[in-house]
Amino acid sequence: MMASVANDSLEEYLFAVVPLFVLMGLLVTVSNVGRDTFDVFQRLLWRITAGLGVATVFANAIFASITGISIASATVFSRVAVPEMTRHGYTKRFATGVVAGSSVLGMLIPPSLLLIVFAVLAEESVGRMFLAGVGPGILLSLIFAVTILLMAKFRPGFVFASADDDPGFDSIGAAEIVRKALPILALMVIVLGGLYGGFLNPTEAGAAGAFGALVIALLRRSLDGSTFWKLLVESGQITVSVLFLILAASFFSRMLALSGVPRELAEFFLDGSIGPYGFLLIYLLLIIAMGCLIDSISIMLILLPIALPISEAAGFDLIWFGILTVVAVELGLLTPPFGLAVYTIKSAMDDPDLKVGEIFRGAWPFVCAMLVALAILVICPPIATWLARL
Fold it and tell me: What's the pLDDT at 165?
């Protein structure tokens, strides 16, 4: 059975999408596209109260649409947005909290590594999962922006270190805005336009995106031979780690199926007093609790082989169930003690005066915002499913 699982679970052409999207995200990171995206939104939103915080959220959302990895977003924007925000009168706690909170968009807005993993485990279409992530990604971005505006109005001491956030911005003209926005817009058109327009399947979209990111990095002269080799090695390491986890999860799910445990659990949850939505509540709470201790992909690989048969028996839409799973899993990036996004920001900042506890406190309002988004998605499933079912 182990030999059969190894062959069946990893031979699929679809899995080539993993290294391609990972490589694209790493190439975009070294070519300073994230900094340019932040500069564009900073200029567009500078008149809004706490505009730099809102700019960070929307820049992260756009950056997420071509990276697919939350940790990449946290690394880039901790170096780009946090110094800029503190220079303009924001507290470090708020600045790092905004970056940590908005970095979770990287795993929800397509292309997303977690959505790919869910699609594989649930035997759903990767393209449909990507489409399903668009509505919830926009919803979460808007809720984050509203959270920032409410904090600026009702808790200004949490947001601003000085009296206001308008010490004067470095103005950039329309031509400079276009120059900075063009690379990321071009990648979005290539990857998302090709994918959603039906011209490319997910693997081909990943290949086109990786090639486009390579061209941008070469044109910007931000990539030499040694850096490119390091990126290839890092892409390989991430890919192999993910594929080994998928291999183990496939074996785990087959053993569970033989044991009959999912069937018995389905009968327990659905035939008793708990019911389908009682099961869903327990499942989401369990994910959030596990997110305090282990990483996102591991949570999915442990729980989904058990939860998917129950959710199917309950009559849940698996695409909607997958989006709920990813949002709940991403909460773990912000909650102590594991909080991978928080520790990534601490490592990237290299600031001895910045305490990990301060970043966790700064991220707490965004944890609450994610819980609100999760509740909205439970109440209103079409936000996640309408685009995927067209």
Answer: 46
Place of tokens 């924001």: 90
The span from the CA of 269 to the CA of 310, in Å, is 8
Cβ contact 205:111 at 8 Å: yes
* Two tokens, residue 268: 């327990």
Q: Are 261 and 306 in contact (CB under 8 A)?
A: yes
Cβ(242)–Cβ(113) below 8 Å: yes
Single-letter code of the amino acid located at 350? D
pLDDT, averaged across the chain: 84
Query: What burial class does residue 171 get, using C-beta atoms within 10 Å of its C-beta: 0-12 exposed, 13-18 middle, 19+ buried?
Result: exposed
H-helix segments, the chain: 2-10, 17-30, 33-44, 51-67, 70-87, 92-103, 113-122, 126-154, 156-159, 174-188, 194-196, 202-219, 225-259, 261-271, 275-291, 296-313, 318-331, 340-349, 356-379, 382-385
pTM: 0.85
Phi, psi of 172 (to 5 degrees): -125, 140
